[in-house]
Structure formats: structure tokens, C-alpha cells
Amino acid sequence: MPKIRDSVQPRLARGVRLETDSATGKSVLLFPEGIVELNETAHGILTRCDGRTVSEIVQALAEEYDADLAALGSDVRETLGDLQQRRLIELT
Amino acid sequence: MNAPRPYALLAEITYRCPLHCPYCSNPIAVESAVLSGRRTARSPAAPNALRTAHAAANNAELTTDEWKRVIREAAALGVLQIGFSGGEPLARRDLADLVRAAREANLYTNLITSGIGLDDERVQLLRDAGLDSVQLSFQSDQSDLSDQIAGARAHQRKLDVAAKIRAAGIPLSLNFVIHRRNIDRLPQMIELAETVEAQRVELANAQFYGWAFLNRAALLPTREQVVRAREVASAAKARLAGKIDIFYVLPDYYETRPKPCLNGWGQRYLTVNPIGDVLPCPTASSAIADLTFENVRARALDWIWRESESFNRFRGTEWMPEPCQSCPQREIDFGGCRCQAALLTGNAANTDPVCEFSPNRGRVDAVLGEINSSSDYAREWTYRVNPKTREISKML
Lengths: 92, 396
Prior knowledge:
Number of strands of chain B: 9
Strand content of chain A: 15-25%
Structural class of chain A: alpha+beta
Largest interface: A-B, 14 and 19 residues
Helix content of chain B: 25-40%
Radius of gyration of chain A: 13 Å
Radius of gyration of chain B: 20 Å
Order of helices and strands of chain A: EEEEHHHE
Number of helices of chain A: 3
Number of helices of chain B: 18
Structural class of chain B: alpha/beta
Order of helices and strands of chain B: EHHHEHEHEHHEHEHHHEEEHHHHHHH
Oligomer: heterodimer
Largest sheet of chain A: 3 strands, antiparallel
């Protein structure tokens, strides 16, 4: 998997919607013929995909959860890489 | 029995359609009964006609308000996705209203369409209503062959419609139903998906229910064709990775283990047909003779999903016969498809005869043997008959 640069801006791919599943209260991604339930990290990232760069998202999450920047950064990149491979997000 | 929550509703809002595809999964006998208000003599190959009391008593399509209520009830039940299908859903003028109602209920909205009837104005209306995605059917990549399969001049219009959908910025999937007469054109069909910039393409071999069951001898590809098609599909999948998602579905007669149909009966999906009957599977009404379906005009969707006999009959694993009952795969393939068991063995509770452990596997092998030993390549098929020809010709 190619390394995800700090300066890219992740956003939901076209046709993908972020919703709350009212049956479970959890975040889900909806797309044609598919539903993915998000874990806390993915939810944290995707609710901040509003034009912010990867490093800005990591920074914001680190502040909110008082977490180690390096460890969080690698979690975020792994999650983004996974979502990108499934074509649920785009990196621009 | 404890019912799980459903994830997706297939809203078959009409059985009217301008195409006549011989593999349509709609029931063979229901249309005329539902839409003209009388039952007609059923085709000899049709396993049974529609049996609900509602069909005879109240055979009209659900109204806009009735569909809106169904949509709200489905969302309350946990449904997250809705597919508007048919028939041709564009045959209903209130489609955009229904899409809007589904978006208001936070559902993800898919339109599953032939594209016929989708002009600039309706694309605009649907986009403004919040339509999330369009699955556009194609019969093949060439006009002549496609129109021959559809029994209507449709291919060129579909190309125009694909362009309109893309121009409107709505994500586009192409759906091809694959069968003996078009399976050799798989490479060209994939090229067509690239040309129209689809995000996703389904190349699904015809599954043998409804009209496809009736026309099976003309539709089932040969083993040689299936092997070649699988190679083409997997090569294309690798080549287009990251660009177009390709889903290839084998004709399951050639498998040795059954498909995990619906991910289990009454587990994730429900279908509401044009007159409001609620089906665990869209083909159940025509395939399974001894099942009675509830109607949204008489019952709340929640009750039907949780309590009805039709949804509970094959829910879970208790109903399973051997060899399923003691099979380690039983919660992986759920015994396969109930409709297929009914159509091929006469009993919906049997193991899907596709399974190599089914005592009825010989029935599938007999069909395959017949297809693969015959040189009669292009057999005739019966086109799907349209319920309301006058309305359809107006639409065309």
C-alpha cells in the first residue's frame, strides 16, 4: 500500500454517505449495495474529512483523545489506506 | 423466534416494464392478475400463480402515500438501504416523490432501472430528490443483440441515459444479466462500462427463477463458456482495480456448493411487491407454492418482519433437513436458496440441489448434461409478457 502523505485531503468517495445507524447508534458508510459499520477511529476520521489534511486530522484527534501523536498517526493512515482500497474515500 | 433487524428493502413499485427480457425474475403469472385485475391461464412452466387474497380483492398497485408509509416503517425497523425496482420503476410518475421520502427517512437510495423513460427533466427531478445511485441495465454491448434480448429497441436510448446520469453527477453502476447468447461478449461489455465511466459493473449470470426458469434451456451457458467468462472477469477485475468495481456472478448450477441466498431467510432483506405483499425474497411468491404472504395494507411491516409465518418458516437453522442440519457450512450458506429447492425438488425445505451433498444434485447435473451435450446452440425463448401494453407503448 502506498504511503499516505500528510498533506492530502481525504474525502468520501462519490456515492458514499456517512450516516448513523439508528438501530445501533453506530456510524455507517452507505454505498451502492453495501454497508460498512465504522469503528471509533474510522468514525473520528471521517467526521473530520471536511477539507482538512491528514496531518490536521491527526492533530485534532490527538488533542481530543489526548493520545500519542505518532501512534495515532499510524492508526489514522492505516484506516485511511483501508478505506481508500475499498474506494470509500478519495485522497486529493 | 427472535428476528434480527433488516438492512435493505427492495421496493418493487410496479411490474410494468417496456422491456421483455426472457430472464426477468418477476413472477410469470402475477402481472396480469395484479394489473389487469383478473387471473389469466398460467404458463405450463409456471410453478404457481399468485395466491394472496389481496391480489383478487384489491389488485391495484400501492399508492404514493402507501409507499411512503412502507418506507417510514422500513426505516423504523432498521433498514438503511432501499432499491427502487420493478418492472421498470420509472413507469411510476411518483418515483421522485418516493426517493425524497426515502431520503427524508435517511435511507440510501438506489434506482434499479432499464433507463427507458429517463429524460433530462426526470434525471433532474431524481437528483434534486436526493437519489444516491443508479444501476442501469444493459442487455449486451451491441445494439442488435441487446435489442433482440430485450425484445424492444432500447440499447441506443440506454447509452444516452448513461451519459445523462453521468452528466448529472449521479454514481452509475451497469448491470448485465449474462446468459448463453451474450456471455461471449463479456470483454466488450466491460469495455462499455469503461466507456460510459461506470463506477461499478455487475456481470451476473441469469439465476433461474421466474421467466429465466421458463427459458432455462435457452439461457444456461455451456461449461466452456463459463470457464472462459470467469477468466475474462478476473483479468478485468485485476486490470480495473481502483477504477471500476467488477462483480461477476457464476450461474450457480455450475457450483458445487450453494449460494448463501439472502444471507439467510428473513435475516437482512425484505421485498415489497407492487401490490404490497411483503416477501422474504423477490422470487418467493412464484417459486414457493405453499407460502402465504402478508400485505402492508393489512399489517404493519414490523409485525410482518418479526411474526409472520412466511418470514419465520426458514429463519435460522431449525427448519433444516439433513444433510444441512449436521453440516459445518450451515451458517455459511444457510442451505442455499429456498426458491431453487422448491423449483427443482418441489419442496422449499430441501437442501438447495446445487449442493454436492444434496440427494437431489442429480437434477442439476441432468440439466447441465443436457445443455453441454447439445449442439442446438441458439434455442428459442419466450419473452416476458407485459401486463399493460397500452400504457407501455405510451411510455415508449
